[in-house]
């Protein structure tokens, strides 16, 4: 299952931006410990600062991932389940 995590830097995270590389490495390791993976990560402009695309077997581990990131205090997250075009088509094919 794919998930999108929309992240904003907190005041703490913005003040410690120089350590972003180490935090990024820890985020990738966290996903692996939760039997998932970070498929992609993007620095973005606009409402959010970072967008992470992850793949987890279920929503429980995706939620644990997002809560664990938030618990560190550097990023606030908002998570959404994402369907690929093929998955979405399969869903739409089942609409009555």
Task: Tell me what you see in this structure.
With about 100 residues, the chain is α+β, with helices and mostly antiparallel strands. It is elongated, with a radius of gyration of 15 Å. It contains four helices and four strands. The chain has one domain: Lrp/AsnC effector binding domain/regulation of amino acid metabolism (RAM) domain (Alpha-Beta Plaits).
CATH C-level label: Alpha Beta
* Number of continuous helical runs: 4
CATH level-4 homologous superfamily: Lrp/AsnC effector binding domain/regulation of amino acid metabolism (RAM) domain
Low-confidence stretches: none
- Share of residues in strands: 25-35%
Sheet with the most strands: spatial strand order: 2-3-1-4
Fraction in helix: 40-55%
Q: Under CATH, the topology is which?
A: Alpha-Beta Plaits
How many structural units, i.e. domains?
1
Distance from N terminus to C terminus (CA atoms, Å) equals 24 Å
Shape: elongated
Structural class category:
alpha+beta
Radius of gyration over all CA atoms, rounded = 15 Å
What's the CATH architecture name? 2-Layer Sandwich
Total strands: the figure is: 4
Indicate the mean pLDDT.
95
Biggest pleated sheet: 4 strands, antiparallel
**Pattern of helices and strands:** EHHEEHEH
